Task: structure prediction
Amino acid sequence: MHRMELLKSGGLAGGRKSLLDPRTKLLLLAFVSVFVLGNAGGDAAAEFRVALNYLPLLLLLGARRWGAVLFAVFFYTLSYALAVLVMPHCTGFLNFLVLAMTGIVLRFMPGILTGMFVVSTTTVSEFIAAMERMHVSQKITIPLAVMFRFFPTVVEETGSINKAMAMRDIKFGGKKVLKMIEYRLIPMMTCSVKIGQELSAASLTRGLGSPEKRTNICKIGFGWCDAITFCALGGGLVYVLLRAFGVL
Result:
């Protein structure tokens, strides 16, 4: 039922109106991916990278995603504690293990959190309108639009599968713990394939593949929050470039 509601509405489960334009959100995601995950700028971007690490937390706070914020704060704190307190006293393989754990969290989690913010606060209509404003080809827009619906639907299906398996005592602490992978992973893989096919068909049915220009009642545009974000990102980029060329 929930999947059919998503197909009909074209929106996201729990989507919340954001003050940022979808294009600004995509720019934020690009900055986090390039500077945090890609480590662009090296030592010159160290301070800017730390700011981008915590930027998703502010965005999720504004979207009232308290669970995601607490989860991120816990792992951030744990990773920094391991890096500062434990890593200097470790050698050999243990040092490599701690470095790998903290590196994965501090490199990948900001991008994941930013992506979570973008998906949870942007409807499919807003995203498509933004892509059309940027004159992006439908060959790129359609797969991304399907992705916007795919992840919330998969999360909902996962919850339903977990509840069904828990009723059959296939859970941690139950009598059939060893069957968890078989009875949860395989249904999830099957549902994921089916969801992708249904969402692709729904997108084409709604006219996303038509060569004619689509009309859209969704209103998007840049506001004062977008201006502040652009200034902050532009200032950070200028700072990194000045440090990289030895001006600062």
